[in-house]
Amino acid sequence: MPRPRPSPERLTGSLVELTGFQPAKDAAALWSAFGERRFNDLIRYFPNKDFNSEAQFRRWLEAAQGDWHTMVFRRLADHSAIGMASYMRIDEKNGVCETGAVAHAPAAQGTPEVTEAHFLMARHVFDDLGYRRFEWKLDNRNEASHRAAQRLGFTFEGVFRQHMVSRGRNRDTAWYAMIDTEWPVIRRAFEIWLEPSNFDAEGQQRKRLADIRADLLSTP
Fold first, then answer.
1. Is 76 a domain residue?
2. Residue numbers of the domain that contains 182
3. CATH of the domain at 121
4. Which residues pair with 65 in a beta bridge?
5. CB 81: neighbour CB atoms within 10 A?
6. Partners of 175 in the β-ladder
7. Which of 38, 102, 122, 202 reaches 20 to 30 Å from 129, CA-CA?
8. How many CA within 13 A on the CB side of residue 215?
9. Intra-chain end-to-end CA distance of the chain, in Å
């Protein structure tokens, strides 16, 4: 049975709000949050060319909408833009989609806000839409993206060698995914990790997300 296409206007958590990309409102805010041309350092493993201006960035992201549905991450405390990710490669018939074009503002990297944003995106496809599978793919050289996928609960499934040509070179693509039967444990781990009691007075986590998942899986 086909599932609805993921295209939410708004997903709200306790720390962040995600809204569908609106070029006139969001392009400049994201470009600034990403450090303007320093954004190219953040996305050096993306297959597109570098951006020389906010206008180029806006045209690229605007043109991708339709095939993609980009969500902009905003911190609830001050409504500042802190990142983005897109639903892409959407297969409604089989209930499968990917999260990609993921970028976090340097000031937001490693924060609970970013973790909650990815939780909200996954929760939408599984709980709201009934998807069977949610994917994360990356250039196999991108160690930071490997770590992020593993931390968030995606399972490594292998490497597609010479999957595409990216920036003039062969790219090996690593595949990760989470599936609907795994989701209840992954969801509960996110919920526990995000509880205020999991953070000390300095805002440091008391228990890692991966350790919480492991504990849940080991409980009879």
1. yes
2. 10-218
3. 3.40.630.30
4. 68
5. 22
6. 137, 158
7. 102
8. 11
9. 33
In a domain, 2, yes or no: no
- Over range 149-167, report the average pLDDT: 96
Amino acid at 162: Q
Q: What is the mean pLDDT of residues 130-142?
A: 97
Predicted model pTM: 0.96
CB 33 within 8 A of CB 105: yes
* Strand ranges, E, within the chain: 10-12, 16-20, 69-75, 81-91, 96-104, 133-139, 155-166, 169-179
Q: Which helix (H) or strand (E) holds 29?
A: helix 23-33
∠ Cα 79 84 86 (to 5°): 135
Strand partners, 68: 65
Mean pLDDT (whole number) for 121-125: 98
When divided into structural domains, the chain yields a total of: 1
